[in-house]
Design brief:
This protein is mainly alpha-helical. It has helices at 23-45, 53-78, 84-87, 109-127, 131-139, 142-156, 183-192, 209-235, 244-260, 294-315, 329-335, and strands spanning 5-6, 96-97, 100-101, 170-171, 178-179, 201-202, 274-275, 291-292.
Length: 338
C-alpha cells in the first residue's frame, strides 16, 4: 500500500513555460501587495491615519529594499557554510559566477526581518514617526502576505522537510535521493510501499514543510494577530505604548518556526549548529529535539526580542497623534513629530 503522495506533476515553477517569469517571484509581489492593502486599511481606521499614501509607499520601499539586502547578507554570511563571503564581502551582491549570470540565489527570512527593521527605523527617523507604531501596523499584516511566499517555495519544490513514513509525506523531484544499500533507507521505503532494486537510489517522501509554514506561520498567526492581538492592543492604546502586536508576532513566529524546523531538513552545508542528541546523522531524519539548526537559534532570538518588545510596550506611555485631513496631504504629516 502506497503511504505517500507524489509532488503534483502539473505544477511548474514558471507562470508561462516559454517566459522566464516564475510563480515564486509573482507570489512575493502578491505578498507585498496584500501587506500594503492591510496596512493602508489600518492607516485609514487607526492611529496612523495621519500617514498619507505617499508616506506609506515610501515606507514599503524602505522596508522591501532593506529586506532584500538583509536577506541576502544573512544567507551568505550565516547559511553558506564557509568563510568565503566573510573574506570576500564584495561578492555578496555580485550576480555572476564563472562568467555566467546566476542572479542572487539564497535569501534568509531572519536576515529579511533585520533588514526590514533597519529600513523601518531609517524611515521613522527621517519622516518623524514612532518606529513601534509603524511596526505594529505593518506586522499585523505581514503573516498573510508571508503565506504566499511559502506557497512560492512549495511551487518551486524547494525547502522540503525531513523524511517521513506518514501518509502526508510527499516525494519532491529535486530532493536528494538515497542509496538503497543503507538500511534505514530500505526500512523507510518498505514502510511507505516504495519499490526499489538493490544498489539503486531512491527519492523518499518528506514532510511538505513549506505548507506547514504557510499554515502556522502564515494563516493562523495572521488570524491571531489581526482578530485577537490587534484589537487588544487598540483597547490598551490609552494605557501603554506600541509594541504589543510586534512582540506577539516575534514570539508567535519564533515558536511556530522553531517547532516546524524539526520537520524541515537543515541546510546540508550546515547541519546542526547545536548537536546534543545521541544521533545527529542523517540530518534527513528526526533524531532528537536536542539537535538545533541555525534557523532555530534565530527563532530563539526572535522570541527573546518579542518578550522585550512587550515589556517595552507595557512600560511606555502612549502617544496621541493629531488627525490629519486628507486635503492637507503629505507635507503636513511630515512636519509633525511622532
Amino acid at each position: 500500500m502506497q503511504m505517500y503522495v507524489d509532488f503534483p506533476s502539473w505544477i511548474s515553477p514558471y507562470v508561462v513555460p516559454f517566459l522566464p517569469v516564475r510563480w515564486y517571484a509573482l507570489m512575493y509581489i502578491v505578498a507585498f501587495t496584500i501587506t500594503y492593502i492591510l496596512f493602508r486599511y489600518q492607516c485609514n481606521h487607526g492611529e496612523l491615519n495621519r500617514m498619507s499614501a505617499d508616506d506609506s509607499l515610501t515606507l514599503f520601499c524602505y522596508g522591501i529594499g532593506f529586506l532584500i539586502i538583509g536577506a541576502r547578507v544573512f544567507s551568505t554570511l550565516f547559511y553558506d557554510g564557509t568563510w568565503y563571503y566573510w573574506t570576500h564581502p564584495w561578492m555578496i551582491f555580485w550576480p555572476f559566477r564563472n562568467g555566467r549570470f546566476i542572479g542572487l540565489p539564497g535569501m534568509s527570512y531572519h536576515g529579511g526581518v533585520v533588514g526590514c527593521i533597519f529600513g523601518g527605523w531609517l524611515f521613522a527617523r527621517k519622516y518623524k514617526y514612532r518606529l513601534m507604531d509603524v511596526a505594529d501596523h505593518v506586522i499585523a499584516a505581514i503573516p498573510l502576505g508571508y503565506t504566499f511566499g511559502r506557497l512560492g517555495n512549495f511551487i518551486n519544490g524547494e525547502l522540503w522537510g525531513r523524511v517521513t513514513t506518514h501518509g502526508i509525506g510527499m516525494v519532491f523531484p529535486d530532493a536528494p535521493a538515497f542509496s538503497t544499500d543503507i538500511e534505514w533507507v530500505r526500512q523507510v521505503a518498505d514502510k511507505v510501499g516504495m519499490s526499489y532494486t538493490s544498489g539503486s537510489f531512491i527519492n523518499l517522501p518528506r514532510h511538505p514543510s513549506q505548507l506547514y509554514e504557510a499554515l502556522f506561520e502564515g494563516v493562523l498567526l495572521w488570524l491571531v494577530l489581526w482578530f485577537v492581538i490587534r484589537p487588544l492592543a487598540v483597547r490598551r492604546s490609552s494605557k501603554n505604548g506600541p509594541g504589543i502586536v510586534s512582540g506577539a508576532y516575534f514570539i508567535g513566529y519564533g515558536l511556530a518556526r522553531f517547532v516546524i524546523e524539526y520537520f524541515r531538513e537543515p541546510d546540508s552545508q550546515l547541519g546542526f549548529i547545536i548537536a546534543l542528541g545521541k544521533e545527529t546523522e542523517p540530518t534527513a531524519l528526526f533524531k532528537s529535539v536536542l539537535n538545533i539548526s541555525m534557523g532555530q537559534i534565530f527563532c530563539l532570538l526572535m522570541i527573546l526580542a518579542g518578550i522585550a518588545m512587550i515589556i517595552y510596550a507595557l512600560k511606555t506611555k502612549p502617544v496621541t497623534y493629531p488627525k490629519t485631513s486628507k486635503s492637507k496631504g503629505n507635507s503636513n504629516a511630515r512636519k509633525r513629530k511622532g
